[in-house]
Write a structure and sequence with these properties.
Length: 282
Protein backbone atom coordinates (compact mmCIF):
# COMPACT_ATOMS: atom_id res chain seq x y z
CA UNK A 1 0.00 0.00 0.00
CA UNK A 2 1.33 3.43 -0.90
CA UNK A 3 2.21 5.69 2.04
CA UNK A 4 1.21 9.31 2.58
CA UNK A 5 4.47 9.82 4.46
CA UNK A 6 7.19 9.52 1.83
CA UNK A 7 7.89 13.26 1.71
CA UNK A 8 8.97 15.54 4.55
CA UNK A 9 5.98 17.42 5.98
CA UNK A 10 5.38 20.21 8.48
CA UNK A 11 1.93 20.79 9.99
CA UNK A 12 1.53 24.54 10.47
CA UNK A 13 -1.07 25.83 12.94
CA UNK A 14 -1.88 29.47 12.25
CA UNK A 15 -4.47 31.78 10.77
CA UNK A 16 -5.11 32.15 7.05
CA UNK A 17 -5.00 35.83 6.14
CA UNK A 18 -5.93 36.73 2.59
CA UNK A 19 -4.02 40.01 2.39
CA UNK A 20 -1.07 41.35 4.34
CA UNK A 21 1.54 38.58 4.03
CA UNK A 22 1.51 36.88 7.42
CA UNK A 23 0.81 33.55 9.07
CA UNK A 24 -0.13 30.74 6.64
CA UNK A 25 0.12 32.89 3.52
CA UNK A 26 3.82 33.22 4.37
CA UNK A 27 4.45 29.73 5.73
CA UNK A 28 2.94 27.78 2.83
CA UNK A 29 5.06 29.21 -0.01
CA UNK A 30 8.25 29.53 2.06
CA UNK A 31 8.23 26.00 3.47
CA UNK A 32 7.23 24.59 0.07
CA UNK A 33 10.09 26.43 -1.64
CA UNK A 34 12.44 24.76 0.84
CA UNK A 35 11.32 21.33 -0.43
CA UNK A 36 9.08 20.45 2.52
CA UNK A 37 5.33 19.90 2.20
CA UNK A 38 3.40 22.46 4.24
CA UNK A 39 0.13 21.13 5.69
CA UNK A 40 -1.92 24.00 7.18
CA UNK A 41 -4.25 23.81 10.18
CA UNK A 42 -6.23 27.08 10.09
CA UNK A 43 -7.13 28.69 13.41
CA UNK A 44 -9.19 31.41 11.73
CA UNK A 45 -9.72 32.96 8.33
CA UNK A 46 -9.23 36.70 7.85
CA UNK A 47 -9.70 38.94 4.84
CA UNK A 48 -6.60 40.89 5.96
CA UNK A 49 -4.69 41.10 9.23
CA UNK A 50 -5.78 43.17 12.19
CA UNK A 51 -3.27 46.00 11.72
CA UNK A 52 -5.65 47.37 9.07
CA UNK A 53 -8.60 49.55 10.11
CA UNK A 54 -11.08 46.71 9.67
CA UNK A 55 -11.18 43.08 8.59
CA UNK A 56 -13.46 40.06 8.20
CA UNK A 57 -12.71 37.22 10.65
CA UNK A 58 -14.14 33.69 10.71
CA UNK A 59 -13.03 31.84 13.84
CA UNK A 60 -12.09 28.22 13.18
CA UNK A 61 -11.64 26.95 16.75
CA UNK A 62 -14.56 24.50 16.72
CA UNK A 63 -13.43 23.01 13.41
CA UNK A 64 -9.77 22.43 14.29
CA UNK A 65 -10.12 19.04 15.98
CA UNK A 66 -12.57 17.49 13.46
CA UNK A 67 -10.16 18.70 10.75
CA UNK A 68 -7.17 17.05 12.42
CA UNK A 69 -9.13 13.86 13.17
CA UNK A 70 -9.30 13.22 9.42
CA UNK A 71 -5.49 13.37 9.29
CA UNK A 72 -5.36 10.71 12.02
CA UNK A 73 -7.55 8.45 9.86
CA UNK A 74 -5.03 8.87 7.04
CA UNK A 75 -2.15 7.92 9.33
CA UNK A 76 -0.27 11.14 8.59
CA UNK A 77 3.10 11.65 10.23
CA UNK A 78 4.96 14.94 10.35
CA UNK A 79 8.64 15.82 10.51
CA UNK A 80 7.69 19.09 12.17
CA UNK A 81 4.71 20.72 13.87
CA UNK A 82 4.83 24.51 13.94
CA UNK A 83 2.40 26.77 15.78
CA UNK A 84 2.07 30.54 15.43
CA UNK A 85 -0.51 33.05 16.64
CA UNK A 86 -3.25 31.54 18.82
CA UNK A 87 -6.29 33.59 19.68
CA UNK A 88 -7.81 31.94 22.76
CA UNK A 89 -7.32 29.52 25.64
CA UNK A 90 -9.43 27.00 23.73
CA UNK A 91 -7.03 27.14 20.78
CA UNK A 92 -4.01 26.70 23.05
CA UNK A 93 -5.68 23.61 24.59
CA UNK A 94 -6.38 22.19 21.13
CA UNK A 95 -2.81 22.80 19.99
CA UNK A 96 -1.48 20.98 23.07
CA UNK A 97 -3.62 17.98 22.11
CA UNK A 98 -2.35 18.16 18.52
CA UNK A 99 1.23 18.13 19.79
CA UNK A 100 0.48 15.11 21.98
CA UNK A 101 -1.22 13.27 19.12
CA UNK A 102 1.49 13.76 16.50
CA UNK A 103 4.71 14.09 18.52
CA UNK A 104 7.27 11.31 17.98
CA UNK A 105 10.87 10.82 19.05
CA UNK A 106 11.97 11.80 15.54
CA UNK A 107 9.98 14.93 14.79
CA UNK A 108 10.27 18.52 15.99
CA UNK A 109 7.82 20.96 17.54
CA UNK A 110 8.47 24.60 16.68
CA UNK A 111 6.55 27.25 18.63
CA UNK A 112 6.47 30.93 17.70
CA UNK A 113 4.65 32.41 20.74
CA UNK A 114 3.11 35.41 18.99
CA UNK A 115 2.07 37.39 22.08
CA UNK A 116 3.24 40.99 21.74
CA UNK A 117 5.91 43.43 20.62
CA UNK A 118 7.71 46.59 21.74
CA UNK A 119 7.17 45.71 25.40
CA UNK A 120 3.38 45.36 25.15
CA UNK A 121 1.19 42.22 24.90
CA UNK A 122 -1.38 42.08 22.11
CA UNK A 123 -4.96 42.89 23.15
CA UNK A 124 -6.01 39.23 23.07
CA UNK A 125 -3.24 38.19 25.45
CA UNK A 126 -4.92 38.54 28.81
CA UNK A 127 -3.07 37.35 31.93
CA UNK A 128 -4.89 34.01 31.59
CA UNK A 129 -3.75 33.62 27.98
CA UNK A 130 -0.17 34.38 28.99
CA UNK A 131 -0.31 31.67 31.64
CA UNK A 132 -1.67 29.19 29.11
CA UNK A 133 1.15 29.96 26.69
CA UNK A 134 3.69 29.45 29.48
CA UNK A 135 2.34 25.91 29.76
CA UNK A 136 2.30 25.30 26.01
CA UNK A 137 5.97 26.10 25.46
CA UNK A 138 7.05 23.02 27.42
CA UNK A 139 6.40 21.05 24.21
CA UNK A 140 8.83 23.10 22.12
CA UNK A 141 11.97 21.65 20.59
CA UNK A 142 12.56 25.12 19.12
CA UNK A 143 11.06 28.31 20.56
CA UNK A 144 11.28 31.66 18.73
CA UNK A 145 10.03 34.50 20.97
CA UNK A 146 10.90 38.11 20.36
CA UNK A 147 12.26 40.05 23.34
CA UNK A 148 8.79 41.14 24.48
CA UNK A 149 7.48 37.58 24.38
CA UNK A 150 10.55 36.22 26.17
CA UNK A 151 9.90 38.74 28.96
CA UNK A 152 6.20 37.85 29.19
CA UNK A 153 6.96 34.13 29.33
CA UNK A 154 9.51 34.55 32.13
CA UNK A 155 7.82 37.34 34.13
CA UNK A 156 10.79 39.57 33.36
CA UNK A 157 10.44 43.35 33.21
CA UNK A 158 10.83 44.51 29.61
CA UNK A 159 13.75 46.79 28.85
CA UNK A 160 16.08 47.82 26.08
CA UNK A 161 19.85 47.67 25.99
CA UNK A 162 20.31 43.97 26.78
CA UNK A 163 23.76 42.64 27.64
CA UNK A 164 24.92 39.16 26.65
CA UNK A 165 24.70 38.01 30.27
CA UNK A 166 21.13 39.30 30.52
CA UNK A 167 20.11 37.56 27.29
CA UNK A 168 21.64 34.31 28.53
CA UNK A 169 19.74 34.61 31.82
CA UNK A 170 16.50 35.27 29.91
CA UNK A 171 17.09 32.28 27.63
CA UNK A 172 17.97 30.09 30.61
CA UNK A 173 14.65 30.96 32.27
CA UNK A 174 12.83 29.98 29.07
CA UNK A 175 14.76 26.70 28.88
CA UNK A 176 13.69 25.84 32.43
CA UNK A 177 10.10 25.82 31.16
CA UNK A 178 10.93 23.00 28.72
CA UNK A 179 12.07 24.26 25.30
CA UNK A 180 15.25 22.59 24.06
CA UNK A 181 16.52 25.31 21.70
CA UNK A 182 15.65 28.98 21.90
CA UNK A 183 16.05 31.92 19.54
CA UNK A 184 15.28 35.29 21.12
CA UNK A 185 14.61 37.37 18.04
CA UNK A 186 14.71 41.07 17.26
CA UNK A 187 17.24 42.24 19.85
CA UNK A 188 17.66 45.95 19.08
CA UNK A 189 21.35 46.85 18.89
CA UNK A 190 21.04 50.31 17.36
CA UNK A 191 22.16 49.96 13.74
CA UNK A 192 22.00 46.16 14.00
CA UNK A 193 19.41 43.54 14.93
CA UNK A 194 20.44 40.50 16.94
CA UNK A 195 19.04 36.98 17.34
CA UNK A 196 20.24 35.19 20.47
CA UNK A 197 20.61 31.40 20.04
CA UNK A 198 20.64 29.17 23.11
CA UNK A 199 20.54 25.40 23.65
CA UNK A 200 19.27 24.02 26.95
CA UNK A 201 21.57 21.90 29.13
CA UNK A 202 24.75 23.46 27.76
CA UNK A 203 27.58 25.18 29.57
CA UNK A 204 27.18 28.74 30.83
CA UNK A 205 28.11 31.32 28.23
CA UNK A 206 27.36 28.96 25.36
CA UNK A 207 24.63 31.10 23.83
CA UNK A 208 25.51 33.16 20.79
CA UNK A 209 24.22 36.52 19.57
CA UNK A 210 24.08 36.62 15.77
CA UNK A 211 23.76 40.12 14.33
CA UNK A 212 22.81 41.70 11.04
CA UNK A 213 22.62 45.30 9.86
CA UNK A 214 19.12 46.78 10.00
CA UNK A 215 17.51 46.83 6.57
CA UNK A 216 14.60 49.20 7.20
CA UNK A 217 11.45 49.69 9.24
CA UNK A 218 9.70 46.81 10.99
CA UNK A 219 7.01 45.16 8.87
CA UNK A 220 4.07 42.83 9.44
CA UNK A 221 4.80 39.13 8.94
CA UNK A 222 8.58 39.18 9.27
CA UNK A 223 8.39 36.91 12.32
CA UNK A 224 6.32 34.39 10.34
CA UNK A 225 8.85 34.55 7.52
CA UNK A 226 11.77 34.05 9.91
CA UNK A 227 10.27 31.09 11.80
CA UNK A 228 9.02 29.38 8.63
CA UNK A 229 12.61 29.27 7.40
CA UNK A 230 13.80 28.00 10.79
CA UNK A 231 11.14 25.26 10.76
CA UNK A 232 11.92 24.02 7.24
CA UNK A 233 15.66 24.08 7.89
CA UNK A 234 15.18 22.18 11.15
CA UNK A 235 13.43 19.24 9.50
CA UNK A 236 16.04 19.36 6.72
CA UNK A 237 18.79 18.94 9.32
CA UNK A 238 20.38 22.38 8.96
CA UNK A 239 22.45 23.61 11.94
CA UNK A 240 20.46 26.14 14.01
CA UNK A 241 22.95 29.01 13.85
CA UNK A 242 23.37 28.55 10.09
CA UNK A 243 19.59 28.63 9.76
CA UNK A 244 19.26 31.77 11.87
CA UNK A 245 21.82 33.58 9.73
CA UNK A 246 20.00 32.48 6.58
CA UNK A 247 16.58 33.51 7.91
CA UNK A 248 17.77 36.90 9.16
CA UNK A 249 19.56 37.62 5.89
CA UNK A 250 16.54 36.64 3.82
CA UNK A 251 14.20 38.81 5.89
CA UNK A 252 16.58 41.75 5.50
CA UNK A 253 16.76 41.24 1.73
CA UNK A 254 12.96 41.15 1.56
CA UNK A 255 12.63 44.35 3.61
CA UNK A 256 15.05 46.14 1.26
CA UNK A 257 13.14 44.88 -1.79
CA UNK A 258 9.83 45.99 -0.24
CA UNK A 259 11.15 49.49 0.42
CA UNK A 260 12.46 49.71 -3.12
CA UNK A 261 9.00 48.78 -4.42
CA UNK A 262 7.33 51.23 -2.00
CA UNK A 263 5.23 48.49 -0.40
CA UNK A 264 3.22 49.84 2.60
CA UNK A 265 4.41 48.54 5.99
CA UNK A 266 1.02 46.92 6.64
CA UNK A 267 1.40 44.83 3.48
CA UNK A 268 4.40 42.94 4.86
CA UNK A 269 7.47 41.98 2.85
CA UNK A 270 7.39 41.09 -0.84
CA UNK A 271 9.22 37.79 -0.37
CA UNK A 272 7.76 36.54 -3.66
CA UNK A 273 10.42 38.54 -5.49
CA UNK A 274 13.17 36.57 -3.72
CA UNK A 275 11.59 33.18 -3.05
CA UNK A 276 13.90 31.52 -5.56
CA UNK A 277 16.83 32.17 -3.20
CA UNK A 278 15.32 29.78 -0.67
CA UNK A 279 14.64 27.16 -3.32
CA UNK A 280 18.30 27.06 -4.29
CA UNK A 281 19.88 27.62 -0.84
CA UNK A 282 21.54 24.73 0.93
Amino acid sequence: MLSHNNQKKIAVINDLTGFGRCALTVAIPVISAMKVQCCPIPTSILSNHTAFDSCFIDDYTDKMEPYVNEWKKLGLKFNGIYSGFLGSKAQIDIVARIFESFKTEENLIIIDPVMGDNGTPYRTYTPQMCQEMKRLIRYADILTPNVTEACILTDTVYKTGWTLDELEALAHKLAQAGPKRIIITGVDLGEEIGNYCYAAHTAAGSGRLLTIKKAGDSRCGTGDLFTSIIAADAVNGVDLETSVQKAAGFVADCIRASEKMEIPLTDGVCFEELLGQLATAG
